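Narrative of activities, Objective 1.

The group set out to show that a structural description can be obtained from nothing but a protein's sequence at a throughput compatible with the screening campaign. Below is one input-output pair from the validation batch, recorded exactly as produced.
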Amino acid sequence: MAYDLGRAFAEKGVTVVSGLAQGCDTGGHRGALSGGGRTIAVLGSGITVIHPRENVELARHIAEQGAVISEAPPDAYPSAGRLMARNRLQSGLARAVVVIESGERGGAMQTAKNAQRQGRLVYAVRWSQPDEKRTGNARLLDAGAQPIDGPDEVATVIATLYSHKQKMQRQQAIAATQQRLFEEE
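Output recorded for this entry:
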């Protein structure tokens, strides 16, 4: 699913942001690359310490069609704090977060929570088969995350993102105008 969604978004010109972790992150990056699009890998380590090591070659490909970034010093090893910071950066760089598969806890749930705080849209894959690895998805959907069932819905998601962006721009313009009203006092 991560590969298929990554590819579908890339084919529509959307940059895929993920964390280069094994599993869904790897799938999303690979899908974006195969769709001819851009992808950004946000690391929980320094850029010279690619983690996991299995994704060193993938990171090279990503750098050719996007970017590999980190806020950690170049030679920093991954740590729990850096991985959590990575989740904050992923959601901050994105217009929306799509949770492919998550348990009750973990990086994807933290990224979704960050996205909500940052005013981003949150989507969760609505799986037809319940699984312990997907209980976080069900929780997100119950809490109001937008459902996504597969790559056929990417065009609809993009339209929603565009509408959300316009709404956020209007709110920012209103806030700026209201701020100016009180500056003159």
